[in-house]
Amino acid sequence: MTRRILARLTALSFLSILPVVFSPALAALDIGDPVPKFTATAALDGKTFSYSLADALKKGPVVVYFFPAAGTQDCNIEAHAFAEAMAAFEAVGASVIGVSADDIDTLKDFSVKQCQSKFPVASDQAKTVIEGFDAVMQTRPDFANRLSYVVSPNGTVAYYYQNLNPDKHVERMLNAVKALPKPGASR
Length: 187
Hints:
By secondary structure, the chain is an alpha/beta fold. 37% of the residues lie in helices and 20% in strands.
């Protein structure tokens, strides 16, 4: 009898931790949540400037995408894909900003080579923006997770996608921007 009770307790204990162990990590910022309006040092075409999300949102929706480390294979793939799609984002009135914990000198080079001088990348070494968007990589907290947001012009999350595989981020962000209500359109 004691063995059966012990076995049951062990099974119940195991089942109680399953949601913690196997639940996917979700972004803290959900659809409809306001985003932090940040200002950061950014690079575009190898030159630095002060990027303001609030100013960018005055012009239309913004894709804010977080990436772990400039110059790594998957981050290069993702940056190249965003660069190739910039004309499509601009056609629907959206802009793109990449954010990582890399230093600005690294991002100046990355902005030319991988981003092809088509969109800016911001340095967030203090990780205040990364933390504000809940984009810290849980397994390696010194890095941003690969997490992309579409921020609507009113400053709220319209869509987000989190996956370390860079392949679907651009497609999903572009589709989400295209699905946004047009200014002046009623829902």
